[in-house]
Design a protein that fits this description.
This protein specifically catalyzes the removal of signal peptides from prolipoproteins. The chain is α+β, with helices and mostly antiparallel strands. It has helices spanning 2-30, 64-87, 92-118, 179-194, 196-221; strands at residues 38-42, 45-52, 145-150, 154-157, 169-172, 176-177. The longest helix has 29 residues, at 2-30.
Length: 222
């Protein structure tokens, strides 16, 4: 019980730490930089302010409001999943990975739910400010996700003799992302690299917990 309690608190602390850092950086960028503005830190690292309507790294598959609702539901499932892992005294490193994914998901959900109603619009010439709730640039659930981390590690032009891509410019790494995206990516990467077997085994716990929940509900109805 003590171990489950400590691992549960570890997950909560990780989520809170990522959320606080993520939101501080986003608010600082949003309220101090115009859209598209870029600050050079090194030749391979820039703070470049952009916004997107989608999920990690700007991807958007479904309409914005549906996508936001699905992310909220997804986060709820992960919270339930982590609670099962903590009760079962699962591997600490695995719980850390899942907690990073949860923190990243919630971090971008906050932007989508709240930013549209509490910020004015960021433009190429105007910096956004806090506004009274409901007087922002969009409705609830329609806020844009703030991105700012850009790592153009190297770039070059493909030789003209290469078919299809000859003469084209190549930039690595081109996506602009945020702390929440980084938490999701790190969590997934470490999970796949070191905990793929643990991931598969965890489904036995989920199945058992779900069966127990069904039995409990069935006994209460009878």
């Amino acid at each position: 019980m003590k171990s489950a309690f400590s691992k549960g608190w570890l997950s909560i602390l990780i989520v809170l730490a990522v959320l606080i850092i993520d939101q501080i950086v986003k608010i600082e960028v949003k309220t101090n930089m115009s859209y598209g503005e870029s600050i050079r830190i090194t030749d391979w690292f820039y703070i470049h302010f952009v916004e997107n309507n989608g999920m990690a790294f700007g991807m958007q598959i479904l309409p914005k409001v549906i996508q936001t609702i699905l992310r909220i539901l997804f986060s709820g499932v992960i919270i339930w999943y982590i609670s099962i892992l903590a009760k079962a005294d699962y591997k600490r490193g695995y719980i850390v990975c899942v907690s990073l994914i949860l923190a990243g998901a919630i971090g971008n959900i906050i932007d989508s739910i709240f930013y549209g109603v509490i910020f004015s619009k960021s433009t190429f010439t105007e910096i956004a400010t806090f506004v009274p709730v409901g007087h922002g640039y969009a409705d609830w659930l329609y806020g844009k996700v703030v991105d700012m981390l850009h790592f153009p590690l190297f770039e070059f032009n493909w030789p003209d003799w290469i078919p299809f891509i000859g003469g084209n410019h190549f930039l690595f790494f081109s996506p602009v992302f945020n702390i929440a995206d980084a938490a999701i990516s790190c969590g997934i990467f470490i999970l796949i690299l070191f905990y793929s077997r643990s991931f598969n085994n965890s489904f036995h716990l989920v199945k058992t917990e779900f069966q127990n929940l069904l039995k409990k509900n069935d006994s209460q109805t009878h």
